Amino acid sequence: MLIQLITGALGSVGFGMLFHIKSKYLPLAALGGFWGWLVFLLCRDMWGGVFFPTLVAGFAVDVYAEILARLCHETSTSFFVTSVIPLIPGSTLFYCMSSIVEGDMLTAWQYGRDTFLYALGIAAGMSIAWAICYFTRKIHK
Questions:
Q1: What is the distance between the alpha carbons of residues 129 and 66, in angstroms, rounded to a whole number?
Q2: What is the count of structural domains for the chain?
Q3: Is 18 exposed, middle or buried (0-12, 13-18, 19+ CB in 10 A)?
Q4: CA dist., res. 46 & res. 51, Å (int)
């Protein structure tokens, strides 16, 4: 589990460098990747499945990005994009496409379903967190 968390953090730093975020924010990107993957692993161990753990992790990462945006006077998008990288379903998408090429439609369907649930979970978690943050800012004004 520790190796997964460290590689999640390093992957977030790598994408932070790729997206040209300021070098002083790279440790925050690493912490975001670490945090997002930790929340995902804990939720997956508690509830299993794909969608709900990804939704909670997407929510947690977006709240993290919103907090950092306020503290650092930057946009939340740069923090969110780099921190959500460990949650992106690259392997399931690859296996889905590989199964389609091999003609194994049952396996492709299973991987395709999981890929969709990962993506939907990230989007739903982000949307819920964004809406809560948006309405909270409106109330405080």
A1: 9
A2: 1
A3: exposed
A4: 13
The model's pTM is 0.89
Which stretches of 1-140 are DSSP H helices? 2-18, 26-47, 51-72, 76-84, 90-102, 105-140
Residue 135: CA count within 13 A, CB half-sphere:
5
pLDDT digits (tens, 9 = 90+) for 82-103: 999 999 999 999 999 999 999 9
Query: With bands split at pLDDT 50, 70 and 90, how would you rate the model's confidence at 46?
Result: very high
Structural domain of 127: 2-140
Residue 133 tokens, joined: 């943050």
Cα-to-chain-centroid distance, residue 64: 11
Which single residue is written with the structure tokens 């990288």?
85
Evaluate if residue 40 carries a pLDDT over 80. yes
Instruction: Name the token pair of 25.
Output: 């924010």
CA distance 79 to 19: 11
For 79, the token pair is 């923090």
Could you tell me the two tokens for 77?
A: 């998008």
